Amino acid sequence: MNFSVYRDLLAIVPVRRVLLVGMLARFPHAAAGVLLTLHVVLTLDKGYAAAGVVAALVTIGIAVGAPWRGRRVDNVGLRKALIPSVISEAVIWSVAPHVSYEWLLVLALIGGLFTLPVFSVVRQSLGVLAKGDKRRTAFTLDSIGTEVVFMGGPAVGAVLATSVSTAVGLTLVGICTAGAGLFLMWFNPPTRSESPEATEHDVEAATAAVVSSAPAHLGEPAAELTEAAGAAVEAEGQSGGLLARAAAGFSWLTVSVAVVFVVAAGAGLLLASSDVGIVALVESSGNPGQLGIVFAVWCFASLVGGLVYGAMKRRVSPMLLLLAMAVLTLPMSLATDTVSLALLSIPGGLLCAPVLSAASERVADLVPEERRGEAMGWYGSALTTGTAIGAPLAGMAIDVVGPWAGFAFAGTAAALMVLLTLGIRAVVNARRTLV
């Protein structure tokens, strides 16, 4: 391990600035999860399954919206792409706390659809600013910053919900997130090494140079080939060209990238289910104000694990990291109070940041830079899809069995996802070997 890599990376001003902006922009939504759960359970007097449905709709909206917003960043730039998010964050979360449960479901879906894409933007920018092994350290630092935010965000959310009101808390989330979006637009971190226009100009210039330097007798055949290629492209456009272009648009989606997306979905399921389980167990003990203690310990463990992983000189498979985290989450079901839950959250928490860092690094390595914004959007969609599945199912288990069932479901489901994916990949590789 080499911990000096952190000092070297933080000495780069743009990297340091992106990490700081990412922390500030994430803080409001770090409090939103607890606020939404307590708003449904305490203010609207619904169960944890109902709260899980709201969380699921938010994450479904994020999963649907993240890819096209990532593509918008690729195509029109960060500032224009963020305008819808800034407006919707301020409006929707100021209205949502004052409507019925049924309307809250609708607003939760729309709010998720236009959520500020902090995760994908920050990771995309770090992928541009950091190269090689520095990229692992940069993603780890971002995960560590996220853990610091989630050490304080849920605690602030719990205090606002229990001491003031969930309505005030959710309104502040919307206003602060919109403000963070405006700050991100002002800072405008780089998402590409160079503009598409510059790249196109360079290609045209290089082509012109080659043509101008070619022997004269090659001119006519080259012209004929160009004309023939144009005719072929036109013919393709008339017969199935749209399907071909659509397939080409996803040429970056290889089997290896798909496996990373499975890891992201499993991590989302595991974290969301554990999140609901923590809220349910602490609230059932009659001390919802102590939620911040458990989240602080859980996130601090992730911070420590992230520091160690970022200093490592070799990478570890995100699939194996997720499997270990799932197994280590199961003992949280044995907790009986706030203190025991906080202590039992440490082993699994140590692997949280490493899982997300390893998966993000893998996506950045596998996907070309010009499609990385869209790929990070799909990565975020996979993560939030897992969250959308995990939150309501864990809520149902908690309502039927008890708070401990949330952790049992989380660890078991995530572990089964990993084992099933590894089994499918082994069968595919075996068939390729036979062929």
UniProtKB/TrEMBL annotation:
PROSITE patterns cross-referenced by the UniProt entry: MFS
Membrane topology: Multi-pass membrane protein
Domain Major facilitator superfamily (MFS) profile: from-to ranges: 242-435
InterPro entries: MFS, MFS_dom, MFS_trans_sf
Cell location: Cell membrane
Keywords: Membrane, Transmembrane, Transmembrane helix
SUPFAM superfamilies the record matches: MFS general substrate transporter
PANTHER family, A to Z: MAJOR FACILITATOR SUPERFAMILY (MFS) PROFILE DOMAIN-CONTAINING PROTEIN, PTHR23542
Name of the protein: MFS transporter
Provenance organism: Arthrobacter koreensis
